[in-house]
């Protein structure tokens, strides 16, 4: 994942914490979102782009396009923060041959069919299985809302 500095699972995608705390703290120049539905919704894309900090580019892509761009090294020399709504996407990336960085789970809202593991983290069985697969593959997965909170292993909440 040449050019990538951080991977975050946050179902809100780009919002205040991502824009002001994570993106600026990590000095990123691009926020990439991989989400098939959002990538084809011009209204949602426009709102997300407005939420990005000034001077930070956005890439809001469908999975296959993002995968091709990453594999082609399109982000070399940049500082990219990847944001996805679900860890399931990250497992798909891993299975497609992408070597993932450590993963930070920030916010996964309480929804029907989810179990709450932490105040800000609720997961379906498929999402929890995806996290467990990442962990079994040797990828560090932490639960951390903002950068100045301790990065605690997600396993502590299961």
UniProtKB/TrEMBL annotation:
It is found in: Cytoplasm. Its main location: cytoplasm. GO terms for cellular component: cytoplasm. Pfam families: PTSIIB_sorb. Keywords: Cytoplasm, Kinase, Phosphotransferase system, Sugar transport, Transferase, Transport. Residues 1-158 form the PTS EIIB type-4 domain. GO terms for molecular function: kinase activity; protein-N(PI)-phosphohistidine-sugar phosphotransferase activity. This is PTS system protein. It comes from Coprobacillus cateniformis.
